[in-house]
Amino acid sequence: MDIAFKCPSCHQELEVEIGAAGQQIACPACSKPMTIPQPDANNLKVGIAAHTSAAAKEEKHFSVPVTENPVQPLIKKALPSLEAAAKDGTRRLRIKTIRHIDCKEVGHDNFDTIVTDFLSKVGEESIVSITTISYSYVEMGTQKLLVDFGVLIVYKG
């Protein structure tokens, strides 16, 4: 059997074997000295193996922050896909940038095909504007500054 009691300083709930009653110990939570109380009807506890582990004895102190302001999400959700946005019925302005370098495969330039596929997927009625862009980047293999192009598509989706 065990004796269940609380530290008089920090109120951490503790349990020890009945044979330790009357001993002077340091609280494992706050390190303040205290005496283990004598067993009585209020503090005797019949031990179960699952309840006598160190993890089961640890008392958790959680607090929920309270505020009068509206709660702000900490994790932003990703924008829905085009298909999900079309089913939802709400259409907001969105932007898609397609870079020429991202459309090159071994020996093939698929820029026109990828732009055409995206535009047909969005639909002509949803397109607000298409703007060409020019940008520069450092090629990792040669460490040269290269200039490339792409398109910036503004659409409702």
Q: What fraction of the residues are assigned to beta strands by DSSP?
A: 25-35%
Are there runs of 5+ residues with pLDDT below 50, and where? Answer: none
- Give the topology string: H per helix, E per strand: EEEEEHHEEEHEE
The span between the termini is: 67 Å
pLDDT averaged over residues: 81
**Number of distinct helices:** 3
Largest sheet: 3 strands, antiparallel
**Class by helix and strand content?**
alpha+beta
What do these coordinates show?
- The chain is α+β, with helices and mostly antiparallel strands.
- It has two domains: 2-57, Single Sheet (Rubrerythrin, domain 2); 82-156, no CATH class.
- The protein has three helices and ten strands.
- The strands form four sheets. A three-stranded antiparallel beta sheet has the order 2-1-5, with no helix packed on it. Strands 6-10-9 form a three-stranded antiparallel beta sheet, with helices on one face.
- A hairpin with a 6-residue loop joins β9 (127-138) and β10 (145-156).
- It is elongated, with a radius of gyration of 33 Å.
- It starts with a strand and ends with a strand.
- The mean pLDDT is 81.
